[in-house]
Amino acid sequence: MLARHHHPIAAIATAPGRGAVGIVRLSGRNLAAVVSAVCGRSLVPRHATYLPFRDAQGQTIDQGLAIYFPAPHSYTGEDVLELQAHGGPVVLQLLLARCLDAAQGLDAATGLPRLPGLRLAEPGEFTERAFLNDKIDLAQAEAIADLIDASTETAARSAARSLSGEFSKEIHVLLDRLVHLRMLVEATLDFPEEDIDFLQKADAQGQLTGLQQTLADVMQRAQQGAILREGIKVVIAGQPNAGKSSLLNALAGAELAIVTPVAGTTRDKVTQLIQIDGVPLHVVDTAG
User: Which residues of the chain have pLDDT under 50?
Assistant: First the structure.
């Protein structure tokens, strides 16, 4: 791993804007000293504790829940602290600044900074840490992004299945079957003088045919997943006044484009994202 992967990181983990709840997350090694400084007490691992969050002067920033996940039983595989406060941007920024400040403060027991090197996390870095620490594989890491970006229920359910490890399990089964076939081939090549035909006895041809079919099915589902993720671009083109804008409005279920008997009413393209049977469609209405 690169040197930056060993640095402790912190960030606001919820989406920008206002909300009922916002989360500030820290991940790194040996967070106990920062936990005590920010929360004013030690925390029972994996228990939600309601308490006030105070700044360096002891003034209350907010009140909320603090949860401490010691390594390796956490999302990233490192020590993780999650602070759940009210979701106002100012509150979360103050809470994040308090975490950064507490990390640079000196520990009374050692006289050293509590958590040297704590920095702001880059986009997706918590999930990157989870991948690097073998908490998830690459397919699951990509599924997290797909689940966040899902624009339809079908896309969300597909991403959730991949996140649960369903796709990864299929790949591992394919790999095990390929290794088994390779073992049969190597046994045949290594022991040509034996009377046993390992390939024929194990029906290697049948296994290979079944493996090819399974691989084709997996690839087809992967292609379907890409369509659910990216959608399909559909361009409505035709003669002036042929009903292109009316078709767009009918598909979208709303009056998106102006419809008149006068030819050439649509002069600029009109784009709308809709979904049909769970598949996102980027529909573009064009001028005649």
Answer: none
Predicted TM-score (pTM) of the model is 0.78
- Residues sharing a CB contact under 8 Å with residue 279, sequence separation 6 or more, in sequence order: 152, 154, 227, 228, 231, 232
Tell me: do 102 and 84 sit in the same domain: yes
Q: Which residues contact 219 (CB under 8 A, 6 or more apart)?
A: none
122 belongs to a structural domain: yes
Give me the pLDDT at residue 11, please.
Answer: 98
Q: What number of other Cβ atoms are within 10 A of residue 278's Cβ?
A: 14
Asked if 13 and 85 sit in the same domain, the reply is yes
For residue 192, the model assigns a pLDDT of 77
- Residue 151 resides in a domain: no
User: What pLDDT is stored for residue 266 in this prediction?
Assistant: 64
Quote the pLDDT of residue 65.
98
For the beta sheet containing 279-285, the strands, ordered from the edge strand earlier in sequence to the opposite edge, are 232-236, 279-285, 270-276
What's the CA gap between 180 and 199, in Å, rounded? 11
Burial readout 172-206 (b: 16 or more C-beta within 10 A, e: otherwise): eeeeebeeebeebeeebeeeeeeeeebbeebebee
Q: What pLDDT was estimated at residue 94?
A: 97
Question: What is the identity of the amino acid at 283?
Answer: V
